[in-house]
Fold this protein.
Amino acid sequence: MAISLSPYLNFAGNGREAMTYYQGVFGGELQLFGYAAFGMKDMPEDGLMHGQLEVGAGLTIMASDAMPGAEQTWGGTRVYCSFFGDDLETQQRWFDALAADGSVGMPLEKQVWGDIYGLVMDKYGIEWMFNVSVPEGWSQQG
């Protein structure tokens, strides 16, 4: 049996912009489908009905624009997108790209549990956690 879990992000009208930004950070193949293409009345013509970014290696990010007025019902739900793995170079590149226009909650550095960890909030308010198994011979000085 195969099961996968992918983040499905919801935006308040800027989903296309966000997904294009994420493609610039993570690479991959991006598909964007607007409400207008499906004739959905009462929805913003330029709104994102569904976006999907296939990065590869098991990473798919999906998103849509919220229904008008939905942001009032979100209720402060907090979700973090977490990366785990041993590819320090890739995770460092992604962390730095998201941090360039966002804010670092915790720098990407060695932690008490032995791994390299960092937290960044991107310019859209999405928080990304990075946990890298320490590569052999790694030092804090790089």
The chain has a mean pLDDT of 86.
